[in-house]
Amino acid sequence: MSIKRIQSHPILNVPTDAEVPFTWNGTPLTGRDGEMISSALFANDIHVFGHHYKDGSPQGLFCANGQCSQCLVIADGVPVKACMTPLKKKMAVQSVEGLPRLPEVADKPVLEPPVEKSVAVLIIGGGPAGLSAAIELGKLGIETLIIDDKDRLGGKLVLQTHKFFGSVEDSHAGTRGFEIGTLLEAQLLSLPSVQIWLEATAVGVFSDGIVGVVQKNVYRKIRPEKLLVTTGAREKMLSFPGNTLPGVYGAGAFQTLVNRDLIKSSERVLIVGGGNVGLIAGYHAIQAGIQVVALIEALPRVGGYKVHADKLMRLGVPIYTRHTVVAAHGDAHVEGITIAALDEGWQIIPGSQKSFAVDTVLIAVGLAEVNEFILKARQWGMDVYAAGDAQEIAEASAAMFTGKIEGLKIAKDLQRYPGEIPAEWDEKATILKSRPGAPVHREPPPGEEGVMPIFHCQQEVPCNPCTSVCPEKAIRTEDDRITGLPYLVKGATCQGCMACVAICPGLAVTLVDYRKDPDHPTVTLPYEIWRDRVKKGQRVPVTDRDGAILGYYPVQRVVTNPKRYPGTLLVQVKLERAAAKQAIGIRVQEVQVDPSTVYEKAPLPDEAVICRCERITAGEIRSSIRSGVRDMNQMKALNRAGMGACGSKTCRPMIRRIFQEEGVDLESVTDRVDRPLFVEVALGILAGERKGERDG
Amino acid sequence: MDNIDVIIVGAGSVGVPTAMALGALGMKTLVVDGNPSPGQGDNKRAIGGIRATHSDPAKIQVGLRSLEIFSTWSTIHGDNIEWLKGGYLFPVYREQEEQALKKLLPLQQQFGLNIDFIDPEQLRRIIPGIDPDGLRGGTFSPDDGSASPLLAVNAFARKALENGARFHFNERINTLMVEKGRVVGIQTDKGRYRAPVVVDAAGAYSRPLCATAGVDLPVFPDSHEGAITEPVARMFSCMVVDLRPGPGSKNYYFYQNSHGQVVFCITPDPPIVGTDTRETSVFLPQVAARMVSLIPRLKALRVRRVWRGCYPMSPDGSPIVGWSPQLKGLFHITGMCGQGFMLGPGMGELAARMIAGRPSELDKAAIAVFSPARQFSGVREELK
After folding, report:
1. By CA distance, what is A645's nearest residue in B?
2. pTM, whole model, 2 decimals?
3. ipTM, interface predicted TM-score of the complex
């Protein structure tokens, strides 16, 4: 039995499948049949998958999304991406030490040249945008093929255990992301004109109008009349020494491990980046029983939703704003991280360095559109559309809307939809894409009798499920805008049903009930972490919005409604009157990790690796720029930056940033030329070898 | 900008080494290219094979000199251009290829080339895992090899700069300037430059360039796709050329470069005439089927990137090098028919000697063979 699995989870069901045997470098281990090899290895606490052929640096999981090639392993003799290859019983998995050796093959393969398939609409990506678009097209009976490279639909919805923002009627607000994915999938399955291919990776868009797709090891040429790109986004990376050590990866990769695969991938993490992705990853870590040592953000305040930041602080995660990463430390794996405070001019304040002992650093410093498909298709003059993050980085709720809009646009362009695209869809999509407003201070409402909800929501975000669930219609938002802050309508009566507490995605609503004991009102707190820590009679550390402990109070009662509000516990405590309206959370991380470990080695920023595939450092990029190179293609020719497996998906923005650091106007820099393939494909698959094909 | 002796149009496989060679002879050279840096046209689309084992004596001579420059470059000049002496190997499965290759051997050996027909056993030691079924042997020339076109062109550009050449990039050439029946310079989108000699090293774009001065040059580009794989542990070091035709293609060829990546290319049949360099969906399945049938082990090898480049074809398959018979001052070094990279350094030196008016006795044969004034018969060189 592998050891690093999440044994229980407050939101997700823990699979109980029996494990199958496999070997790692000859050592017998067990893993779940069909899980990705990378997860099976992590479950066995194996994080180093090999060593780079150029400098011997340890390699491991990075994107967990099939995009990079850092997780290369040898499976039954063949080099594969561990994060995209399912584990099979008795598989012999080996680390890649240096260059992989291809297995010797005696027999000539039997080939069947790839066939071409024409479709009215091809959708690349089965996430929120792609699913929503496919549903619109399917409703109109339009022949649509939707492909996704994973073994299930939902895209990043699969990873989202938190309740969504937005509105109930438009974007399933209040429902957890992974459940929304299931809802959309169910809707799609009822539409016969939509064909779904899973484990189907689009690998190139060619000038003859063909999209090359590898579906379960079979190469297929798809000729779409209309192409919709809903490929989402990829995570940006930061430049700092130690940035490619196993254990430094994206927050999205982390969510894949813990939420999709239920792997306890770490013991202690530090999160870099205070956008929603980083904040939510912190929350997910704690749900997975992983300690979050700190979250740092370079800006003066976090950029994500304040309710997400408040949730983290209440659980006991310190947030350091105006801080940056100095270096990650460790030989074969991350062992620690040093951060430092930034001054107004973005320079490190001397002496402000702090080091933490952590095994994982999550990078959540923004997303970039996966746009290689749309750029190529546009270059070839194909009829191409984009929705979701591939169109513009925003929340998944917005992606569902842009998906719907683009789906209907395609139907219209195919002359299969005579109507107009509802004007309010565009408005709603725009609202859902809107950035959060500035935090405001709101005093709790007056009055200390009866029962009333308290809204600890202090920032305008597109979200109003509380208004939908109130049976008395007693909750409204300011000016009835979806971004308006909620309030209890004057004179309205609250029945104390707790629905608003249970549905709030920000866990920012409490119910204060003065009816039984006006001096010690009962406060209902939303809670989504460990059930066994909030049993009746247990004293729990109740916090205010910013995470300060108001006191320890015994739990009076725990209310659940697994059908309507699965996963959310409504924990009732009795507080003194003065504190009742402040109470909102229960701390989980009662002991914080002090920044104590000091690392002697002070690496130089230029030691950071920019091109992970070819191991090109910031220093090498810098010296190339200083020698006069202004053409990224020439830079690639000279030092191979961006020449690796991933096709510069990670390093391109980092190289551009170094140009800027060097004072070079990006207008004077020639961008690199991108060519297919966007992910590597074996010659045997391209040739049409039929062995290894699976049903589907 | 005054006192330029020579303007070279094109900073690619041919233009850059020509600038380097002209500089070495003390001539002031300006190289102009519409691309942003050296080799960003078809140079970077070359796969990097270098051989002297041609079937025409003039090309053998230039090829040998080129081979010498590539193979000694890092020792003499320091830059690593990833020269790999792996040889060229033409495996043979059919009578007709065996005969064709064997017919060339006496001539090739007469010119001092290290090449021979080897038996299947020897061949299988050079490329373990090659399909043994019907293998008759093949020719192997161990002194040939490969280098990185990307690194080589940049190394040559560095040396050209050292030799006094100047480069203008991101500058599109609009016309050749002609006065009183001779070329006097070029006009670009950024200005005019005067020089008594203009070198046409424009490769696939030579014909339209020369047409701006009313010169009709028979260079007709066609396009070929190429690709590169992930790096893997060394399987073989030679360039493998399979001369057999296949569906939609003639020969195809590949080698494993110094990083362990396999680089490959195919010759479409019929040729895809024109300068379209957009990637198509046809190439990969077509070439992959042939490669994995020849060496089944390659089936697990993953293709990383694909591209398409142009071969500037001359009617007879031989380069066009020399003074224009139609316009004084215009010197062609073009029509390399896909061999610009491997022939570039030797050809650049030959061109430089001719431009400087100092051709050697040994150059005479080559000058005649490559002459732009020759009759283009349409009969191709055997080993093109």
Report:
1. B304
2. 0.95
3. 0.96
